[in-house]
Design a protein that fits this description.
The structure is a single chain. This protein is an alpha+beta fold. Helices cover 22% and strands 21% of the residues. It has one domain: Alpha-Beta Complex (Sulfite Oxidase, Chain A, domain 2).
């Protein structure tokens, strides 16, 4: 088995996006300082890329079993990733840029007494308690492929409720064509916010038909128990045919709007992150290929990427006639 050494891994493939976006700030420090600082940064990134270890999962509250989990939707026969992998290797920049940072620091986030504000173009706005939202529909366990834009992937057994059920409860008005969602912002509990890189709060959105698709899930659990903080506790979005950054975590606000909402990564770098962000192996990220992916805990990109992450039969019709290179 061939394993790339640090020197063989292109820096463009391993530099965390917020550092990449802030590269001009490093250049302004001067050539001499760049050699000292950037060298250390890139070596640290390379270590992250080849390190098979994961962060130690933490939480302010222990996971608790979720009662009355209903039917199971299994969309792939691929092996599930281990709990330690799913909870120890994450992107959640509000807690830090390294994959191990969320597991180390997310335990500071307090998730009890959680409410989600639902407003905008809907007939039943309000501040909905999490427990009340969960009662909107039966809890379901769903085994989904999960694909990150950085070309790593997992197979995860989520537990949640259909996003469509919450949308119907809010009763959107006919002119509501998009759904906007936001992550909580708590600087005292989220040390990564101080590192910058994105405009907080983290904001994402879906077209209404995407949000209503039966695959779109508001996840509240993992492996039959409540979510860990680093995975987006207590409630997060999972859209399995899109890259993972579309799946906004720790949701506190859902808003119905009539225009395509601004989203965090699209605002930060529109040349690399489009609004739709569908998994498409024929459209490469400008800094790496999307044709293959690295299935955690593997170190090599030796898994073929599937169109729409393997969910084309369920979702492709929503994009009929669209240029998926333009609307990436």
């Amino acid at each position: 088995m061939l394993i790339k050494t640090k020197a063989e891994i292109p820096y463009s493939e391993i530099t965390p996006e917020p550092w990449y976006l802030r590269r001009r700030e490093f250049l302004q420090l001067g050539a001499g300082l760049v050699g000292a600082v950037a060298g250390g940064v890139l070596v640290a990134c390379a270590n992250d890329a080849v390190d098979a270890s994961f962060g130690t999962p933490t939480s302010t509250e222990p996971q608790t079993p979720l009662p009355n989990v209903a039917r199971k939707m299994v969309t792939t026969d691929e092996p599930l990733n281990k709990f330690e992998e799913i909870t120890g290797y994450n992107n959640y920049y509000e807690f830090g840029m390294r994959k191990s940072d969320p597991a180390k620091y997310a335990g500071q986030l307090k998730t009890s007494s959680w409410t989600v504000k639902i407003d905008g173009l809907c007939n039943k706005p309000g501040d909905y308690a999490l427990d009340d939202l969960i009662k909107t529909a039966d809890l379901e366990e769903r085994v989904y492929r999960f694909r990150c834009v950085e070309a790593w992937s997992m197979v995860i057994p989520w537990v949640g409720i259909p996003l469509a059920a919450v949308i119907k409860r809010a009763d959107p008005q006919p002119k509501a064509t998009f759904v906007e969602m936001q992550t909580v912002v708590r600087p005292k509990e989220m040390p990564g916010l101080a590192e910058g890189g994105l405009n907080w709060p983290y904001t994402e959105g879906l077209r209404m038909d995407e949000a209503m698709n039966p695959l779109s899930l508001l996840a509240v659990g993992l492996y039959g128990k409540t979510l860990m903080n680093q995975n987006g506790a207590p409630i997060r979005l999972v859209v399995p045919w899109k890259y993972g950054f579309k799946s906004v975590k720790s949701i506190v606000h859902i808003k119905f709007v009539d225009k395509m909402p601004h989203t965090a990564w699209n605002d930060a770098n529109s040349d690399e992150y489009g609004f739709y962000s569908n998994v498409n192996p024929t459209v490469d990220h400008p800094r790496w290929s999307q044709a293959t992916e690295r299935r955690i805990p593997n170190l090599l990109k030796n898994t073929k990427t599937l169109m729409f992450n393997g969910y084309a039969d369920q979702v492709a019709s929503m994009y009929a006639g669209m240029d998926l290179r333009k609307w990436y």
